Prior knowledge:
This protein is of the alpha/beta class. The protein has one domain (5-167): 3-Layer(aba) Sandwich (Rossmann fold), CATH 3.40.50.620. It is built from nine helices and five strands, in the order βαβαβααββααααα. Strands 3-2-1-4-5 form a five-stranded parallel β-sheet, sandwiched between helices.
Amino acid sequence: MEMLNIVSFSGGKDSTAMLLRMLELGLKVDKVLFADTTLEFPEMYGWIDKIESIIPLQIERTRPKHSWDDWFYGKFIRGQFKDRIRGFPYVTQPCWWQRDGKVKPLKQAQGKGNKIFIGIAKDEEERSKKKVYQKGIYKFPLIDWGWTEDDCIRYLQSKGLNHPLLTKFKRTGCWLCPQQSRKSLESLYLYYPDLWKRLKKYERDSPQGFKPNFSLDVFEKKMRG
């Protein structure tokens, strides 16, 4: 069976620049995969549709087997927390939603024995040295080209492409992620009041709150001055 070249497309600036440049150079791309956690910002879905409209490939979207609410409100079946709802993932541990909403669906769609292209920029090269990436199937074109995050932004701008989330966030991901920065939470509060309300409800429902030593109510009061 022929080995496939699969682009892992997060929808961020780096993976977008990597995908477009690979196609521009005539490099073989057999499949483009986007892991839809179902918790992306609205603009992300529009961006993915836009990129799909300008490339000769369909962007395949993976989805989790179970919904966020299924996991969030589902109960532990063993251990010290048995019969208690899970609530938010503990930020000091691997995120169960990243595992079940992103990693597992992607691995299933990627199959075995194929090359996986990851959009890690040169100035974040340390990320490529994680244990999970040490198998020979993972490739990092941006690092090979010496492209930094700023290079990716300039490349997209040269094509008239400005990522709609970059004016509000440095990093894009699930809007309710407990590991996001305070700056990201500021943008969520300022620009997405409906999502902010939903986040506060999840915090109230979560046995351990949103994250340790942090309160969205206190944060909101500080934002209001």
